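can u do me a favor
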């Protein structure tokens, strides 16, 4: 793919949105708002039903805007036929939106085939003239837009360097509530198990399991439940034969 895609991009990975599992890396491409730019890719394994689409985002977490190529026909979702024959290079031309600047843009290429969807991404910068004062300075997934860092939820500050205490407290609170819910469910399961084992006749295999691994479920784990219910001290499945008197 051209421009240069992310490092360690696995072209055989299917279904890993938005970038095929490749981690964000340094920008390999510079562009200006409103400029025309080619996007190209090679086709090694064709798909008879293949369709491509292109999208641009300020980051992976800020959403993507569909780009409509200028030299091919697309449907309403921006998809166009591609990768249907084996060839060294397929190419389309796209125009980046006017007044769209960013220091960590992501250009996403999507290929829909009969076996799944493939994703590849290019990290690039889009700016006009002199760089913005916040280019390359936004932290914690923040993006530079109109000379200001736009921060994700949970961070603030000039360069998104401050973690919001309230958001952190909310995260801790919900983690505590989730742990409490899990504990409550375990207690209910334990109570139901205890009541069932001690008030209903259970199979021998179930009794052996509880006696060996969960003896607390039994009122008296030292006294065999089967011995209580059958009066048989030797076998849980057979009663003692009656003793016949000796012949006269």
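np, heres the sequence
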């Amino acid at each position: 793919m051209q421009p240069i895609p992310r490092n360690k991009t696995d072209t055989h990975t299917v279904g890993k949105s938005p970038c095929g599992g490749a981690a964000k890396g340094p920008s390999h491409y510079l562009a200006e708002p409103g400029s025309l730019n080619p996007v190209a890719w090679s086709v090694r394994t064709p798909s008879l039903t293949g369709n491509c689409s292109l999208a641009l985002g300020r980051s992976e977490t800020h959403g993507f805007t569909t780009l409509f190529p200028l030299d091919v026909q697309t449907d309403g979702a921006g998809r166009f036929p591609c990768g249907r024959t084996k060839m060294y290079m397929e190419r389309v031309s796209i125009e980046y939106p006017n007044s769209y600047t960013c220091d960590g843009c992501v250009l996403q290429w999507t290929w829909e085939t009969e076996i799944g969807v493939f994703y590849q991404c290019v990290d690039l910068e889009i700016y006009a003239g002199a760089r913005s004062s916040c280019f390359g300075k936004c932290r914690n997934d923040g993006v530079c837009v109109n000379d200001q860092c736009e921060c994700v939820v949970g961070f603030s500050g000039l360069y998104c360097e401050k973690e919001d205490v309230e958001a952190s407290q909310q995260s801790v609170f919900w983690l505590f509530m989730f742990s409490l819910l899990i504990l409550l469910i375990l207690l209910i399961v334990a109570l139901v198990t205890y009541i069932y084992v001690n008030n209903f006749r259970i199979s021998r295999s179930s009794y052996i399991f509880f006696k060996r691994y969960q003896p607390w479920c039994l009122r008296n784990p030292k006294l065999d439940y089967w011995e209580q219910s059958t009066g048989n001290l030797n076998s849980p499945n057979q009663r003692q034969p009656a003793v016949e008197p000796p012949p006269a």
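The longest helix spans residues 165-199. hope that helps!!
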